[in-house]
Amino acid sequence: MPAKPQHRFLHVGGKKTQLMTLGEGPPLVYLHSAGGETEPIPFMEKLAEQYTVYVPAHPGFALSEGLNDILDIHDMAWHYVDLFAELQLSGVPVIGYSLGAWIAVELAILRPELISRLGMIAAAGLYVEGAPMGELFIDDFNKLRELIFFDPESPPALQTTPRNPDDSQMLMWLRAREATARVGWNPYLHDPKLPRHLHRVTQPTTLVWGRHDKMIPLPHGEYYAQQLPNATLEILEECGHGVPWEKCDETAALLMK
């Protein structure tokens, strides 16, 4: 039976922050993507079989507030320094997906003692010559699904993105896009200073990437694997950017071993 989620709100540095927890066991923090997956998905439920999984909503996502205090990715990382202090978490595993993985690695640079090991799934954060990222800020949902999923007609693809402007998911989708733009509009979904700091991230790091990722192509994962001192790269076949949905069990197994 899937773990029953618990919801509450914290005040983190003056910002009302939505937090979901599920499962039992040692703590693990999951940092979500630009898609704003702040409610349970099967991937989180797999993690919750061994951990108490903390899923905070970034400022501006879901019902979290405080977006006006976030001007760039570094403000977002500092928000998580404060959130970890509020939850009295330190030395815990952190798994981030896409935008969340970018935040996780920035946090690992700022406060390495907070993170015992990193799981980075299809991480944003880099500019890699010859491997441009896909355009996230488009209104054509069919094209967006093609960018994110290996099979854009699969049930997860159809369930996780709105089908049209009248879809009930639109309000949260628009909030998520506005919040993502705050940190990822210009420069586009990367931090030009990040490469020079990656050598500071010494935690064991598992990078998980879909072979057919069109949103953040595989060379981004290869660059992270080359520059992070203690990283391994796991490549999943017949998988796009939607790794937690497309390869749920395989990804959870890789990140919990």
Q: Can you offer a commentary on this structure?
A:
- This protein has 257 residues and is α/β, with parallel strands linked by helices.
- The chain has one domain (6-256): Alpha/Beta hydrolase fold, catalytic domain (Rossmann fold), CATH 3.40.50.1820.
- It is 33% helix and 19% strand.
- It has an 8-stranded mixed beta sheet with strand order 1-2-4-3-5-6-7-8, sandwiched between helices.
- The radius of gyration is 17 Å and the shape is globular.
- The model has no long low-confidence stretch (mean pLDDT 95).
Give average pLDDT, whole number: 95
> What CATH architecture would you give?
3-Layer(aba) Sandwich
Output the helix-strand order.
EEEHEHEHEHHHEHEHH
Assign the structural class, choosing from mainly alpha, mainly beta, alpha/beta, alpha+beta, or little secondary structure: alpha/beta
Global shape: globular
Helix content: 25-40%
Instruction: List the quaternary state of the chains.
Output: single chain
What is the number of beta strands? Answer: 8
Regions with pLDDT < 50 over 5+ consecutive residues?
A: none
Major sheet strand order: 1-2-4-3-5-6-7-8
- CATH homologous superfamily heading: Alpha/Beta hydrolase fold, catalytic domain
Please report the first level of CATH classification, the CATH class.
Alpha Beta
How much of the sequence is in beta strands?
Answer: 15-25%
Radius of gyration from the CA trace? 17 Å
**First CA to last CA: what distance?**
22 Å
Question: Biggest sheet: strands, sense, closure?
Answer: 8 strands, mixed
